[in-house]
Amino acid sequence: MDTDKGITREELKNLKEVYASLGDSYKKILGETRKVVAGQDDVLEQILIAIYTDSHALLEGFPGLGKTLMVRTIADIMDMKFRRLQCTPDLMPSDVTGTHVIEETTDGKKCFRFEEGPVFTNILLADEINRATPKAQSALLEAMQERQVTAGNQTFPLDRPFFVLATQNPIEMEGTYPLPEAQIDRFLMKILVSYPTREEEGRIIDYYAGENTPKCSKVIAKSQVVNIQRLTRMMPISNDVKEYVLRIVGATRPEESKMAKEFLDYGASPRASLGLILAAKARALINGRNYVGKEDVERVARPVLRHRLILNFESERKGVKTDDVISRILKEA
């Protein structure tokens, strides 16, 4: 592990203890989640990668697939505060961040007090974010980027860790406000949730059609998550893997790649390169390794890149998907 020059001996000891227990922690998280959620192991891994990199994720899937349940379960397992924000067209920015209210003091005087909004939490589920107006979306995305809320002449820092999981429904497009490309690029990953297998659906019935509702237990403390985020950035990465990431991202840009020019109007920004590196580091850490391999990059490439590539008209006409383009890029990189 690379270490910061300013790290204290006590901090280094804590980080070593967290690192030594990471493999077991992931197994325990997976085990506790399986008590409540049937299947979706890949989705869980990708959500954890986003949390461990101190980033945010966009979750897309049909209604009823357990997206809210999974996020709430992760919050319980990590002993973090959880809030859910239902996005609607009448949602105001103050409904997200909070607002000043007038209250009367004990001596009869009136003063302003800031009433915190749902964004003041550790894990925020922004349900159907594309139903909120651009102004409300911007308020949420500003909090995601700056990790603070400004109200009037006051600035309020958000709790750490702070993770936003925004969901989108892919089948309902009426009355929605799709996120602009510049804003959707702020999410580290776009995670796709698919239908469960028949066996997994049978387990769902067993879990929730009976008398007793399944419950999970806390596995790791909130303070450990902050240390894991620090460890993720300290994970070493070789020049070969770094060059591999640069080749992949470069191959998405029509100015640099013939294949990209054939399928895409716009490619990925340098934020994608950073995202691939950080996500690959987190995946290696989750799997108990102290190095990043090309297989880590390949496993995170689709969720990191799929929302950053803009297909051209010809690709959309032929039914080409961004994941198809990413698959071809990975084969040739």
Describe the structure.
The protein is an alpha/beta fold and 333 residues long. It folds into two domains: 1-228, Rossmann fold (3-Layer(aba) Sandwich), CATH 3.40.50.300; 235-333, Helicase, Ruva Protein, domain 3. Helix content is 47%, strand content 15%. The protein is built from 15 helices and eleven strands. The protein has helices at 9-20, 22-34, 41-52, 67-77, 93-97, 134-146, 181-184, 198-208, 222-234, 239-250, 258-263, 270-286, 294-305, 313-317, 322-332; strands at 57-60, 82-86, 98-104, 110-116, 123-127, 148-151, 154-157, 163-168, 189-192, 264-266, 310-311. Strands 2-5-8-1-9 form a five-stranded parallel beta sheet. A hairpin with a 2-residue loop joins strand 6 (148-151) and strand 7. The longest helix has 17 residues, at 270-286. The protein is globular, with a radius of gyration of 21 Å. The chain starts with 8 loop residues before the first helix and ends with a helix.
